[in-house]
């Protein structure tokens, strides 16, 4: 249920409604709007009609049932776009935000060199994996905490916020100490215990789309994070499994258009994992900007041919510079610079 407060409702009326919602056994999530506040009441679907009684309370304009299975992620609850501040960067604002860096953090020289270089070409946020969820147990699994430390140092040197993937609920606090954004990877997009745990964390979360997930399932995963109280969720389309084999995955750009209708959350696109080939990254990055993406996540490596993971899809520095020039032109046309 969504409880819409009157524009003139007072702070104490809002508080009264919140405690009533809690008394009825539901979890209130207040969304503060420019002209009025709205409360999402989340809980057991079966008895939700009892919330209708809130309609008679002072300051309440309407109690509206939510029609979508996802509530807090839906535009029914919040019409304005969510803008997520990360240090001095705004994700979901006017500018297209570029997240760049290697698939995996390999050593100090690699991550620092990459950080300085991508920053010099206009990237906003540095990425790098310290815990790698690899398909094979024999592949490089990441440097773990040592990698987190290197990523943090590189971010400080280049003056960039940093993001890394978290794969285990037990690691969430540790990873949060080192990074500005937590990433949930495609293989964990329906790991509900992990989603709940990052929902309790204080850091924004990039939630990648599960490679076989529908958009609705993806939004339900976002709902797991939001319903724990973490409202800073960024959705990342990274390609889905289809019958096509010419690319690693199939980039579902229509998801960007659909999500802009369905949710207030920012949406970014990862053309690297979507295509699997460096030569296709530029074209798909520009297409994502044209589709209205709020940002891009791009894998960059000083020597892709020597990368421990995802070398074939990683851009070298020169290719990244060229792609950034192209992206900038598209962003300008879209009025996103
Ligand atoms: C990554 O970003 O390095 C990664 C593993 O991505 P995905 O979960 O989309 O495969
Ligand atoms: Mn990767």
Instruction: Tell me the overall shape.
Output: elongated
**Low-confidence segments, ≥5 residues, pLDDT <50?**
none
Annotation, overall tally of beta strands:
14
Enter the CATH topology name of the largest domain: TIM Barrel
How many helix segments?
A: 10
- Give the name of the CATH architecture of the largest domain: Alpha-Beta Barrel
Reading side by side through the largest sheet, how are the strands ordered?
7-8-9-10-11-12-13-14
SSE order in H/E notation? EHEEEEEEHEHEHEHEHEHEHHEH
Bound molecules: phosphoenolpyruvate, manganese (II) ion
Beginning-to-end CA distance, first to last residue: 37 Å
The rounded Rg comes to 21 Å
Residue share in helices? 25-40%
Largest sheet: 8 strands, parallel, barrel
The CATH H-level superfamily of the largest domain is Aldolase class I
Mean pLDDT: 96
* Derived structural class: alpha/beta
Quick take:
The chain has 337 residues and is of the alpha/beta class.
Explain what the structure shows:
By secondary structure, this protein is an alpha/beta fold. The protein folds into 2 domains: 2-64, Phospho-2-dehydro-3-deoxyheptonate aldolase, domain 1 (Alpha-Beta Plaits), CATH 3.30.70.1140; 84-333, Aldolase class I (TIM Barrel, Alpha-Beta Barrel). It has 10 helices and 14 strands. The chain has helices at residues 11-23, 108-120, 145-158, 172-178, 192-200, 215-226, 254-262, 271-275, 278-291, 317-333, and strands at 2-5, 27-32, 37-42, 60-64, 84-86, 89-91, 97-101, 125-127, 162-165, 181-184, 205-208, 233-237, 267-269, 295-299. An 8-stranded parallel β-barrel has the order 7-8-9-10-11-12-13-14, surrounded by 7 helices. The protein is elongated and about 65 Å long. The two termini are 37 Å apart. The model has no long low-confidence stretch (mean pLDDT 96). Manganese (II) ion binds next to loops.
